[in-house]
Write a structure and sequence with these properties.
The complex is a heterodimer of chains A (about 160) and B (about 180). By secondary structure, chain A is an alpha+beta fold. Helix content of chain A is about 20%, strand content about 35%. Classes of the chains: A alpha+beta (about 160), B alpha+beta (about 180).
Chain lengths: ~160, ~180
């Protein structure tokens, strides 16, 4: 059953069903957020801050979001849904097209499956998509550990009890 | 000379790298909270385990970095006194491009698996391993080979913190080959 830590709601595995949709996340991308994300991930490559370079050398519309920043958005999307006790264990993605300033990103997601491993850790497997204007940009899958109940903390798992 | 023979350039040498540790790198600074907060700010991630020490203590037994920041901790500084060359991430990818004489290469997929949490004060190291090098394939981009490279990361205690696997495709475009 859902529990609270301070003001944050933490989902438990019994409240998650296959087919559940994650609450949609939208964000208007700016040059500032792309550059901030690139620099925070220590990615100094010019296509993430220099429009001339991105257009002339990469054939892109504008500067575009780097891979680690897309992953950071994905993580935020998942953590907003499941709360601070969820633990991202694995993600996989395939990038299609670039995310540029002026784009409105839309993240959508669905619970594809859930399972309990032989250590008792509860997992959800998610299928997620990032679109702009209805066009797919990046597709993701993610595996996330979720508590069974208050007091069951995936972050306490390590070594043989953590099977991501 | 057939196309197949052309695409055998450097193949044996590249195959000798399979499952061997290469390009070991240790981050140039300790994991620190300024970068953590800047990263969270860039995606407006308000998860209290990154912002509230009391919640971090309760859930993650102290502050941690968002797992998806893993690669930030061993990327080289943009500039360092007396350094003439900046080491590139995914050195194996670029070494394959050069050894196989394929002028173009892209990353097509990425998969990341996380182990022990990364915490402020940690020093992250990584090494790369070429896991596979495929047969010659033709895609809409060109003719070349797919490869899979792991970047395996650990902290200063030797604990595994994660592995990023990149699938790359190195190719010559079809126009250059006279096939388009």
């Amino acid at each position: 059953m859902t529990f609270k830590i301070k003001n944050s709601t933490c989902l438990t595995i019994d409240e998650i069903n296959v087919g559940d949709q994650l609450p949609e996340l939208t964000h208007d991308v700016t040059a500032t957020s792309i550059i901030l994300g690139a620099l925070a991930s220590r990615d100094w490559r010019p296509m993430h801050h220099d429009r001339d370079f991105a257009q002339q050398r990469n054939g892109a519309r504008d500067i575009f979001m780097n891979t680690p920043n897309q992953a950071a958005w994905l993580q935020r999307f998942i953590e907003d849904w499941a709360g601070p006790t969820c633990r991202l264990a694995r993600y996989k993605f395939r990038m299609g097209d670039s995310i540029c300033p002026g784009d409105k990103m839309v993240f959508k997601g669905e619970v594809e499956s859930k399972e309990t491993d032989d250590t008792g850790c509860n997992w959800v497997n998610l299928k997620l998509a990032l679109t702009v204007g209805g066009q797919p940009k990046t597709s993701f899958t993610a595996r996330v550990a979720i508590p069974a109940k208050q007091g069951d903390n995936p972050w306490d798992r390590k070594d043989n009890n953590w099977k991501p | 000379m057939s196309d197949v023979k052309d695409f055998n350039i450097g193949y044996d040498e590249a195959m000798s790298w399979i499952d061997k540790k290469r390009f070991e790198v240790t981050g140039e600074f300790d994991v620190e909270r300024g970068y953590i907060w800047t990263s969270c700010a860039s995606v407006q991630n308000g998860n209290p385990i990154y912002w509230d020490d009391e919640v971090a203590q309760q859930i993650t037994r102290g502050p941690i970095a968002p797992p998806t920041m893993m690669s930030a901790w061993f990327r080289p500084h943009y500039w360092v006194p007396n350094r003439t060359e900046i080491p590139l991430p995914w050195s194996t990818h670029f070494a394959l491009k050069s050894t196989l004489a394929v002028p173009e290469a892209i990353a097509t997929d990425s998969e990341v698996v996380f182990g022990a949490p990364i915490r402020p004060g940690d020093r992250i190291s990584t090494y790369e391993v070429l896991r596979s090098l495929g047969d010659v394939k033709t895609t809409k981009l060109g003719k070349g080979r797919f490869w899979k490279i792991d970047a395996v990361c650990s902290n200063q205690k030797g604990e595994w913190v994660g592995t990023e696997t990149m699938t790359g495709f190195g190719y010559r475009n079809l126009k250059t080959l006279g096939e388009k």
